[in-house]
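Worked example

This section walks through a single chain of length 738. The input is the sequence exactly as stored; nothing has been trimmed or padded.
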Amino acid sequence: MLIIFAALMKNLTLLFLLCGFQTYAIDEVYEVYRLSHILFDGWVTDDEWRDIPVFDLKMQLPNLNSTPTEISEIRLGYDDEYVYLSGRLYDSDISNMMANTKKRDALTGSTQWFGMVLDSYNDNENALAFFTTPTGLRWDLAISNDAIGTNPVNISWNAFWDVKVQKNDKAWFVEMRVPFSSLGFEEKEGEVTMGIATWRYIARKNEMDMFPLIPPEFGDWSPFRPSLFQDIKFRGIKRQSPLYITPYVLGGFSRVNELSGDETGYESDNTVIRQIGGDIKIGLSRNWTLDLSVNTDFAQVEADDQQVNLTRFSLFFPEKRLFFQERAGVFNFNFGRRDNLFYSRRIGINDGDLQSIIGGARVVGRSGSWDIGFISMQTANEVDFKGENLTVFRAKRDVINDRSDLGIMFTNRMDFDGGYNSNYGLDFTWETMEDWYLSLRLAQTFDSDIDNALFDPASSKYWISFSSRNNRGFGLGSSLSRSGADFIPGMGFEQRDDYTRIGNRLTYNWYLDNSSKIFSHGFQSGGTAHWSNTTGKLESLGWRLGWDLQLRNTWRFEVRVRPQIENLVEDFELTDDVVIPVGDYKFVSYNAEFATPQTNRLWAQVEAEVGNFYDGRRSSISITPTFNVSSTLELSGAYEYNRASFEQRDQVLDLHLIRLKSLIMFDTKLSLAALVQYNNQSKSFQGNVRFRYNPSEGNDLFIVYNDDLNTDRFRETPTLPTTNQRSIQFKYSYTFRR
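Given that input, the structure is written out below as tokens.
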């Protein structure tokens, strides 16, 4: 298989060297204007702004490289403390300007947007985004992996920065300032070079005007791709070593109802919550940051959305906890879409249950061509969990060119009894030609429960991939990986073990000219095959063939046919009453999906699937609507229905999942959010109500209520309690800054 894979990569390389490729990078460096004094009020009327030339914006959507339909005067400046971005954003129909949210970190296409993305280390891989709307909200996120892949952005990341917004009958006006202390950067001989992209989005026209112009063929996150940013230069930035101290106080009450020892009833475990703790952020230098935490708490974090899982493998949930967010991309060591040597949700979360974190430290930074990251956290010794120390070290550096890197990672998980799980990893990513990448990964586990030997295939995993990152025209990709039976990354995420896998992808996409109502369409094909290393037998093979279509008004349509082979060596339990027995299965399903324009106040995504499912039949439908009623009220929800029937065994699975969300935004500082989830398998309502008052960055008051209500108490004996668990907590934190 290695010979076949190597030959395939050689042929693909020759093909694309013959076909050529297109380069979008900009060579010249833009020198940023130094400001002496700006009245930071949002009106952009200072004389100094007029002396700065505006960026030459071009339309990205819906008509690539066209002249924008509205006038936008965007300028960039700086002083000793801040990077400033100003916008005079004119609108010929200001009365119909869309501004439908006030939520911090809202992500919706039904409102106007304006802001910038900064690659502060100019590493062409990571960046930080700062955006606002006519309501003056703040939206920031962190970008990793050059904005390529399944989920290359981290919306949970937050920073200290300010924005002022004004409006009259002709335009809306913006001044935003980002402290250099919130960025991190490298200085060379008194100069700092960063990368920037800035853009304006006009919702009612689905129009994006940006500088520099980045084509849309790199996927939905194309405008955030750091390797295609404009280089900008600052001179004489003074050294800053900021200090942020954020103590918190937490209080509340929780009740958990559990089955008694004699199993004749339920007993309540009532707990009064009283806790203090805090975080400290220290700027060790311009490009190194130390975070310390004591009694680490995440009571304010939004609840996870429930997911339906009809596979044999674990679900993946994103990290939302702020402590793990800064430059999180440095810690990425992936083996494809989900599997990763480090998964931060392993810290303080055991099998879905929370474990107390005594505290820890986190250091991230960049030195020359090196990116460095270190985390060490200590969990508490509790009744159900052993206390553990969890540590990860990551280092990688640019090699060959500025889009290629070589790295190492070490993880270690150790309890007080001497039990341990340690892993090392080596990775290499090489841009062989424009937007074509060769990636290599090697990792190994050392565990107190196995016989350890260096380079033992049983405890090792490797992954090789060669693929394109451009969606225009032909797209090709191949990968080969092998994971041993004893490869168990104790701080990572791994769906399978003891397998050999081959994956392939072949696509062709057309981007039509501006006169067409069709924006893009194309053929999609790809799949994976897994073999057991022990038996050599095929375990599963899944393939997809389909067509995607996107209209210029942002309607999207997808159709798929999915042949699949599953060879079960043990029973697959969907529920206690529905079990698929050991056997070899071949089946085909058909999938269709469409999405209405997110530029509307009311939009939705609908997906349906029908076909065979192992030795039975399956049908499913999901609907996820969102309604931006106004800038004060947002309603959203989801309904998913899955039916799997197996006539030979007279077994039927009917699964309903309902999720309802509401968000009331009194202003950009005060909000009330509610989430209710229900599925008919657990026969319980899970509710979460979250009140937040955020008068300034780092100053937060949260009140959070959680409940898990049984809807059918009499389905079991003894009778179930009204609620499985209930809690109300308040948390107040304040940041002292120097």
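What to look for: Residues 38 and 46 are 6 Å apart (CA to CA).
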